[in-house]
UniProtKB/TrEMBL annotation:
Protein's recorded name: Type II secretion system protein
Keywords: Membrane, Transmembrane, Transmembrane helix
Keyword match Secreted: no
Pfam families: N_methyl
SUPFAM superfamilies registered for this protein in UniProt: Pili subunits
Transmembrane parts of this sequence: 12-35
Stored PROSITE patterns: PROKAR_NTER_METHYL
């Protein structure tokens, strides 16, 4: 019976092999980083689309309720809300016993905006009287847009969504 030598029992990886493995792992990590950034950007864009849909649906519901006489027009003859907070705070129901009609539970934030801003400050608002080419705030809220200067993955500036 032959005894094994102690020198052969302690074999392992050489320094060169470890460096090659580390280099391959570094290359793979460098390739995955842009993909993860792209994934984060795509998710923020989805959040922006959802928020825009929610707010625009609430504005349309407010307008329809005003046209149907459910809520009073007040001084605004257009029937659009005076500000975004009116969608959350609610409006007195003029038809059903004076209750309150709510259009949003809470105002969504623009995911591309500064986190220090309030949710209402994160949106650029357009009044009914302002043209689409030059949106400007006014007496009511006809539409909302992102204040971000970034361009979406589709090549369209986020403020034009």
């Amino acid at each position: 019976m032959k005894l094994r030598s102690l020198a052969g029992a302690g074999r392992g990886y050489t320094l060169v092999e470890l460096l090659v493995v580390m280099a391959v792992l570094g290359i793979l990590a460098a390739m995955l980083l842009p993909l993860s950034e792209l994934s984060v950007q795509r998710e923020r864009e989805r959040e922006l689309k959802r928020a825009l849909w929610q707010i625009r649906d609430a504005i349309d519901a407010y307008h329809q309720a005003a046209l149907n006489g459910v809520i009073p027009l007040g001084g605004l003859l257009t029937g659009y809300p005076p500000n975004l907070q009116a969608l959350v705070a609610g409006v007195k129901d003029s038809k059903n016993g004076g209750g309150v009609v709510y259009f949003l539970r809470q105002l969504p934030r623009d995911p591309f905006a500064d986190p220090a801003l309030t949710a209402e400050q994160t949106w650029a608002v357009r009044s009914y009287k302002s043209p689409p080419e030059q949106p400007a705030p006014g007496d009511d809220v006809f539409d909302v847009a992102s204040r971000s200067t970034l361009v979406g993955l589709n090549g369209v500036p986020l403020k034009n969504w």
